[in-house]
Amino acid sequence: MLLVIDSANVEEIKELIDYYPIDGVTTNPSIIVKEKLDFFPLLKEISEIIGNERELFVQTLTFKAEDIIKEAKYIRETVPGNVVVKIPVTNEGIKAIKTLKEIGIRTLGTTVYTPLQAYVAAKAGASYVAPYVNRIDNLTGNGVNVVKEITQLLEKHHYNCQVLAASFKNIQQVHNVCLDGAHGVTAAPDIIKGFLTHPATEANVQSFSDDWQKAYGEKSVVNTDKVKM
Ligand code: E4P
């Protein structure tokens, strides 16, 4: 299951890459705008940080298929690394995804709210689809259930397209899509850090350390300063 950072903040990306088994970074225009930095230099910097092993998802902004294709090509030529182009699942977006598949540019169908949008994107050749869990919930839909249905549909009909669930407001939503079969999640840094946060874990770690120190007066089983990495 893929674990992807939904952010363009260089410091947060560096920190998360250092600590967690991260598979990539997703961006969208609103995420990029928050950083108040130039688009391509920022993406190049993120690409350098995450390296060629991880994927970098970059979204197009134009509306017509011909323009989306030009943007996608330019993004791929300009941003180094393992770039996947995010394209909204409009009529024009699907037309662009079809052509980009033919010329070997990998895409993610984004702004997905229904299983049939995902189906069309997968059939057109998208490598990923990104259903927007929290935005669906905000429309009184059931985001987790939409992810489940998309996953079932794509697997049942053997589409070579992964469901990268996106748009999370809380950890319960992530937990539920993981159980329901999503192939990956992309979430903001705070949500990802929250996966490991549990007061019982912190209390347990402290009490193990306290017990050891009371008995031996040491903080570790070995003097870590003397052991080479
Ligand atoms: C990621 O690919 C999406 O652009 C993103 O998850 C949307 O998240 P939001 O609904 O929190 O803006």
Automatic annotation (TrEMBL):
Keywords: Cytoplasm, Schiff base. InterPro entries: Aldolase_TIM, TAL/FSA, Transaldolase_AS, TSA/FSA_arc/bac. GO terms for cellular component: cytoplasm. PANTHER family: FRUCTOSE-6-PHOSPHATE ALDOLASE 1-RELATED, TRANSALDOLASE. GO terms for molecular function: aldehyde-lyase activity. CDD domains: Transaldolase_FSA. Its main location: cytoplasm. It is found in: Cytoplasm. Pfam families: TAL_FSA. It comes from the Bacteria. NCBIfam families: PRK12656.1. This is Fructose-6-phosphate aldolase. It comes from Domibacillus aminovorans. One of its GO terms (biological process) is carbohydrate metabolic process. The keyword Cytoplasm applies.
